[in-house]
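**Sequence with structure:**
===
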Amino acid sequence: MYTGVVAARGDRLQFDQLIAVLRETMEQFPDRRTGQNTHDSMSDVAFSAFSVFFMQSPLFLDFQRQMGRSKGRHNAGSLFGVTEVPSDNHIRSLLDVVPPESLYSVFDEITEQLIGNGITGCVESHHKLGELEQLSLSEWIGKERRTIVYQWIDDVPIRSSEDALLVGWV
């Protein structure tokens, strides 16, 4: 769990500082691998998964692997510090066992920083609205049952004003 404090310069949170908070937390994820099969760090695996959502492209990792082979470097490394991009199956097998609670401390820290920097509308609204909506989907993969839980909240004002943009958070 992350225990440090994100430094802010002026009224902006810095991307590299947020990435550092995530990396420190991801390095503490449970790792069920044993023996010699541990060359990918848990933070590389987790950031590879995160990058797909950040870039909003399901093909992002394939492109990064190809770029790494042809150019010797890739954007996943430049943006997130990933040294080697693992396969999709490897990512799933390692991250499926990581409980979502492992990231709660990151959200708490970022929320504190947002409030400290005056960006409070969405944070306050989330607490006022109470429980998030939730959908659980289960499927069998071989002999293992896999459950995916989606949580969201709709129509949250991005800041505390009458004319604030309403957004949805997943």
Q: What stands out?
A: The helical segments are 15-26, 42-55, 60-71, 75-80, 88-95, 104-116, 121-129.
